[in-house]
Design brief:
The chain is of the alpha+beta class. 14% of the residues lie in helices and 31% in strands. It has one helix and five strands. The strands form two sheets. It has a three-stranded mixed β-sheet, with no helix packed on it. A two-stranded antiparallel sheet has the order 1-2.
């Protein structure tokens, strides 16, 4: 299966990017595709958030391992396949 993401911005008029990526790919691959599509350099901190239907943050998927409480699950982009979260 292929996921299709449409990126829009309220800050830049007519900004639109479409990214198609295999469902087995990781969030890291999606992160890199986004950076390439907007010509950003790597090295900045970044996260994806999995949200509820009401846009409440439920899970954070980070670029690098963060120091978190052992009671919370920790997810990194490189170890998180898209199809396990979406």
């Amino acid at each position: 299966m292929i996921f299709r993401f449409l990126l829009l911005s309220d800050e830049v008029e007519d900004f639109k990017r479409e990214i198609q990526i295999d469902a087995d790919s990781t969030f890291f691959a999606l992160h890199k595709a986004i950076l390439q599509s907007v010509d950003y350099k790597e090295g900045e901190m970044a996260s994806f958030f999995i949200c509820s239907d009401d846009w409440e943050k439920e899970k954070e998927i980070t670029l690098v391992e963060m120091d978190t409480s052992s009671e919370e699950d920790s997810y990194t982009m490189e170890a998180s396949p898209l199809n396990e979260f979406l």
